[in-house]
Amino acid sequence: MVVLSKQTTEQYAYIRHCNKTSAFSSTGIIPVVDLSKPEAKTLIVKACEEFGFFKVINHGVPMEAISKLESEAINFFSLPNNQKEKAGPPNPFGYGNKKIGENGDVGWVEYLLLKNNQDYNSMRLSVFGQTTDKFRNVLNDYICAVRKMGCEILELMAEGLNIEEKNVFSKLLMDKESDSLFRLNHYPPCPEMALDNKNGENLVGFGEHTDPQIISLLRSNNTSGLQICLKDRSWVSVPPDYNSFFINVGDSLQLSNVQYLGLVGDPQVMTNGRFRSVRHRVLANGFDSRLSMIYFGGPPLSEKIAPLPCLMKENEESLYKEFTWFEYKKSAYASRLADNRLGHFEIFSAS
Ligand SMILES: C=C1C[C@]23C[C@@]1(O)CC[C@H]2[C@@]12CC[C@H](O)[C@@](C)(C(=O)O1)[C@H]2[C@@H]3C(=O)O
Ligand SMILES: O=C(O)CCC(=O)C(=O)O
Ligand SMILES: [Fe+2]
């Protein structure tokens, strides 16, 4: 018999449930980009315009780096709660459980959120005890390989957009001041759900949101749960694939407004609305653990986030007030997960 602690039962009760039928399966819908093929650059641009999301194969990240980090993550999340909590509370960095951000969002998820190199080297990781150095090395190897893949994707994107300066986006990730983050998410089984799930519901693991940065590079184990929102506002489930990476366009990466005015969606800034920052969420099924690792590529804090002049048509006006990544981030972190964060920065905002 499973005996539930009062804490587990209470936490389960306040986390939202979601009907299983509210998303359809995405077989054949999600674009797949083979990075080794010459058409990659065209497919990337198309996928960013249509979905703000795509899957990448032949990504060049060594499987060894992936599986080493995955086993470190499994070890970490298997520690007793009082051990893991030594790496918390998340402020916003560190270990967090159920609570996402500072503004009241909750989900069926525990996580370790780390900021750039400073944090990988911080005391927080001392929770790994004698294996701290090993964890740090494994994490560094993974991050270097994933950032390299991210830069390759951003360079192909620039080429696909016919931008002369090939590293216009990738240089932001390579800058030593780049404000990038790394996150391990664990969606544990939910004993309460296993006992009482007459309606075949899912738990909201990570509520719907867009990522504020430029690009998010995600991989997970083979447990499903990730869903993306299409332009028509319907949700599709993304079949998991532990051999591939999934790429999200973040709020900071947007192009030309003209063809997107009037469309329902969440357009992005540097492309002045031509790319979509994809709204996504994770539903936990309660039975199988999902483990995901995400690198959020962000610009330096002082970087101006504005449409690239080379992408603006003659007389095209910017959709957004000019702001720095610091200003945007501050505003994003004061918002709730599901909020339309770019709304505050739109010039012709409806509100
Ligand atoms: C509710 C929140 C959590 C978040 C900061 C925010 O106020 C709104 C954006 C959230 C998000 C989503 C993408 C990343 O997971 C994240 C680390 C980020 O940069 O923005 C999270 C923030 C978080 O979990 O602290
Ligand atoms: O865990 C996942 O698969 C996605 C989580 C996510 O969207 C995030 O951390 O921003
Ligand atoms: Fe996200």
TrEMBL record:
Presence of keyword Oxidoreductase: yes
A Pfam cross-reference name: 2OG-FeII_Oxy
Annotated GO MF terms: gibberellin 2-beta-dioxygenase activity; metal ion binding
Pathways per UniProt: Hormone biosynthesis; Plant hormone biosynthesis; gibberellin biosynthesis
EC supergroup of this enzyme: oxidoreductase
Gene3D superfamilies in the record: B-lactam Antibiotic, Isopenicillin N Synthase, Chain
PROSITE patterns (alphabetical): FE2OG_OXY
Keyword Transferase included in the entry's annotation: no
Family listed: Belongs to the iron/ascorbate-dependent oxidoreductase family. GA2OX subfamily.
Primary role: Catalyzes the 2-beta-hydroxylation of several biologically active gibberellins, leading to the homeostatic regulation of their endogenous level. Catabolism of gibberellins (GAs) plays a central role in plant development. Converts GA9/GA20 to GA51/GA29 and GA4/GA1 to GA34/GA8.
Protein name according to UniProt: gibberellin 2beta-dioxygenase
Organism of origin: Lupinus angustifolius
